Amino acid sequence: QVQLVESGGGLVQAGGSLRLSCAASGRTFSTYGMGWFRQAPGKEREFVAAISGSGGRTYYADSVKGRFTISRDNAKNTVYLQMNSLKPEDTAVYYCAAVRGPSNFIARAYDYWGQGTQVTVSS
Asked: Which of 10, 76, 102, 113 is surrounded by the most beta carbons within 10 Å?
């Protein structure tokens, strides 16, 4: 069982930066692939980024590639999403998710989800 708690969301001007954190419970954190997803009003949940259990592999949606960076600190049971050069279209609720085994870009593959944190980017 894994519990996930996101933090770090807020309101930021276009071009600004935010760092999201996701704190996980448990002692087997490194065995889980981790992902970030987002959901804007009226839209389906969208893949943003994923990272392997060891942190050795990362994956990004084309829409955020070059602007966002996913990382993890397994000693702290925490995964991060550094978001730079934010755009109004990045506005969404951002969710942290954990999957047993390899990281995945498909939301339905994930086993555990956080409650989400709101990111609002003003133009």
From this structure: 113
